[in-house]
Amino acid sequence: MAAFARILPFAISDSAETTERRQSKCCALFSSHDTSASRRFIIGGAAVSLLGFLNLNCELMLLPVLAEEKSNVLEDKDEDVVGALKSLFDPNEKTKSGKVLPKAYLKSAREVVKTLRESLKEDSKEMAKFRRTADAAKESIRDYLNDWRGQMSVVNEESYVMIEKAIRSLAKFYSKAGPSASLPEEVRSEILTDLITAEESL
Fold first, then answer.
1. Residue 55 burial (C-beta neighbours within 10 Å; 0-12, 13-18, 19+)
2. Model-level pTM?
3. Within 13 A of 146's CA, how many CA atoms are on the CB side?
4. CA–CA gap between residue 156 and residue 51 (Å, rounded)
5. Cβ atoms of 111 and 140 closer than 8 Å
6. What is the pLDDT along the chain (202 residues), one digit of tens a residue?
C-alpha cells in the first residue's frame, strides 16, 4: 500500500498538473480567441472610422469647388438676365454683319424689305391681293423715308444705300410708265437683288 501511496500522490499531482495545464491551455486558447476577436473588432471599427473621416474630409475638400461651380452658374444666370435687360433697353442692336445700328432703323428697314419683296413677287393679275401687298409696301416705305431719310447715323450703311436704290428704281419706273403700269421683269429682278443685298447687311 505504501507503494501505492507513493504512486498515488504522483498520480494525483500528475493529474492535478495535467488538469491545471489543460485549464491554462484552454484559458490561453479562449483568451487568444477573445484577443483575436477583439483585435478584429478594433481594427474593423478603426477602418470604419478612418473611411468615415476620409469621406467627410473629401466632402469638405470638395465644398469650395462645389460652391465655386454654383456661384459660376449663378453669375452666368445673372449675366444672362443683365444682358437681356440691357438688350431690352438698349436703343441699338448688332446686325448680322457685326455693326451696331439703331433698333428702330433695323425694324423699319426690315419691314420695307419684307413688304416690298412680297409686293414684287405678287402676281399683278390678282388685283385684290396685289393691291393689298402694294399698299403695305407703300406704307412701310413712307414710314421708312419719314424716319430715316438723310439720318447721319445710317446714311452710309449698305442697307440704307441699297433700300434707297430699290425705292428710287421703283419710283423712276412708275413716274415714267404711270401708276397702273405692270413692272417689267428686268426692273423687278434688279430691285429684288438690291433688297437681298440690303437684307444681308441688316
1. exposed
2. 0.56
3. 6
4. 72
5. yes
6. 444 445 444 444 455 455 555 555 544 444 555 566 666 666 656 555 655 555 555 555 655 655 566 656 555 665 666 666 666 667 788 887 788 889 999 999 999 999 999 999 887 777 788 888 889 999 999 999 999 999 998 999 999 999 999 999 999 998 998 887 888 899 999 999 999 999 998 8
E strand segments, the chain: 92-94, 100-102
Say whether 178 sits in a helix, a strand or coil: coil
Distance CA 151, CA 170 (A): 22
Residue 175 grid coordinates:
413716274
Grid coordinates of 195:
433688297
Cα(22)–Cα(133) distance, integer angstroms = 117
